[in-house]
Amino acid sequence: MEWYWFSLIPVPVLLWLWFELIRDEALPIPLPKETIRKMLKLSSVKENDIVYDLGSGDGRALIIAAKEFNAKAIGIEKNRLLVWLSRLTISKNRLQDRIDIVHDDIFKKKIRDADVILIYLSHKLTQKLGPKFQKELNKGTRIISASHPLIGWKIIRKIRTGHFYSYLYKV
């Protein structure tokens, strides 16, 4: 058998994984770590704050929130592959006591106990979260959105984070 046949074997597997990543409307594009730090500083994360990352991807924002800001971090991620990857990375960093990854839909999981919400989603998903935030979040909860503003919400502060802006809101 020629060597090129072996190179064709993983193609269906890679296509399936890619489909799994993009089928829920938001591409899992990780934010640069420095952008995450700027966003967490902008939202004034304090020690023991509960920080949610909706669509937490590979968990990097959660790790920075727990390690550098000493926050309790909770990620909600729908993609099983990314949940597994996050848990692996969190375990490697020995942060299981500070970070929890929940395999769920961000619209179904309750987020009432959040002090800070971090989002980096598509414009469409970001806008769909507005009513959920109004219904579930407590007064004073800070929301930080990368790249896409929440239409109809009053921006508290807007800063340049990398090649786009991040927007801070308070409930």
Annotation keywords:
171 residues, Rossmann fold, alpha/beta, 6 helices
Please provide a written account of the structure:
Helix 3 crosses helix 4. The chain has a seven-stranded mixed beta sheet with strand order 3-2-1-4-5-7-6, covered by helices on one side. The model has no long low-confidence stretch (mean pLDDT 88). The chain is of the alpha/beta class. It contains six helices and seven strands; from the N terminus they run αααβαβαββαβββ. It has one domain: Rossmann fold (3-Layer(aba) Sandwich), CATH 3.40.50.150. It starts with a helix and ends with a strand. The longest helix is centred in the last third of the chain and has 14 residues. Helices cover 39% and strands 22% of the residues.
Order of SSEs, N→C? HHHEHEHEEHEEE
| Overall mean confidence score, pLDDT | 88
| CATH topology label | Rossmann fold
Shape: globular
End-to-end distance, in Å?
A: 63 Å
Helical stretch tally:
6
- Highest-level CATH class: Alpha Beta
How much is the radius of gyration in Å?
17 Å
Write the layout of secondary structure elements.
Elements: H1 3-8, H2 10-22, H3 33-42, E1 50-54, H4 60-69, E2 72-77, H5 80-92, E3 99-103, E4 116-119, H6 123-136, E5 142-146, E6 157-161, E7 164-170
Parallel strand pairs: 1-2, 1-4, 2-3, 4-5
Antiparallel strand pairs: 5-7, 6-7
In short:
This protein has helices spanning 3-8, 10-22, 33-42, 60-69, 80-92, 123-136, and strands at residues 50-54, 72-77, 99-103, 116-119, 142-146, 157-161, 164-170.
